[in-house]
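We examine the record.

___
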Amino acid sequence: MIQTDEVDDALPFRVTIGNQITDRELLGEKSMWCLSSDKTEPIIKARNQINSAHRECHLHLPETAIVFFMSKGIEYLCDNHNAQELPEPFPRFLNRCPVWEIAEYRVCFLDGGRGAPQACDTVETLAALGVKNIISVGMFGAFDPQIKIGEIITPDKAFVEEGTSLHYYESLEYSIPSIRLHKIASSKMHIKTYPIVSTDAVYRQTFYKEQLWREKGAVGVDMETSVVFSVSSFLGLNSVGLLMASDVHPLNPDDPKWDWHMTREMRYELSEKSLAVAKQLSND
């Protein structure tokens, strides 16, 4: 499920900032920390972590998990659906947390943390506990004028500008969702689909970079989607993302500054939509 495109050496690079940046760097061709010569096993694995010397895990999770990378989603599902908190916390490496289940729909849900490392930890731990389908739910900052605040999208690709995915793949420009789950979200749930970017450098989203992202077809940026897609694929899981535009970035330095517009009601709408995808998946 992973796409690694060939880089065109003839592609023009139009702007120089400081030292010239090469076309390969512009397109994100990276080979950093996943080495083809490394055949050794990881020192720690999720399946070992969940049954560490500190505790034993007896959690039994359904095959589908809704993972929230925002607040208020868990609150909404608990208040409006027959959700039960499971008797043990979710045993990931980075900050254990509660996990709930809606048995009627054969789905569990939890907070996935923030940023690529914790999102990856969550995906690895879900896989170790038998989860097969992940519905990733969060917000994104839009930098394309066609996207309106409050609009829900399901990304068809997420350009990788976070470092965690590159511990799993030698080179990776973007990751993609599973075909089946993305079809449910885009076709059966009628959610629009666009590419996005995932970054782990919140304060390096420059005007120049966002213009380059627009030229690649992306409409917004978040922090987790690319790693959810890439690590899910690496582990043989299905994944899909549902994101809501929480704000719209200025396109030029002289434009009005961006402002936060995400409301509690908007979060609730997105949470209900994620459960609808899970219901559809359980009925297929």
Notes: Confidence is low (pLDDT under 50) at residues 1-30.
